[in-house]
Amino acid sequence: MVCIPCIVIPVLLWIYKKFLEPYIYPLISPFVSRIWPRKAVQESNDKNQGKIHYKGTDINGLPTKGPAEISDKKKD
């Protein structure tokens, strides 16, 4: 059984996004932009910061397709 807020909140959010936001957003956007100004993202001078290199992985850290490292363990 699902609780009432789990049903009501998504429905109210959908109604707001679909029908009310196109009319309300232009009215409140000037106030929001004053309170919450956008700041430019600054790049650091160290380009290797945050980059981690692993053998056998791609950019996202997921295993690559292809041969993996060959282990030195004996096979029975």
TrEMBL record:
Coiled coil: none annotated. Residues 43-76 are annotated as: Disordered. InterPro entries: UPF0729_C18orf32-like (IPR026776). Interacts with DERL1 and AMFR. Belongs to the UPF0729 family. May activate the NF-kappa-B signaling pathway. This is UPF0729 protein C18orf32 homolog. It comes from Galeopterus variegatus. The lineage of its organism: Eukaryota, Metazoa, Chordata, Craniata, Vertebrata.
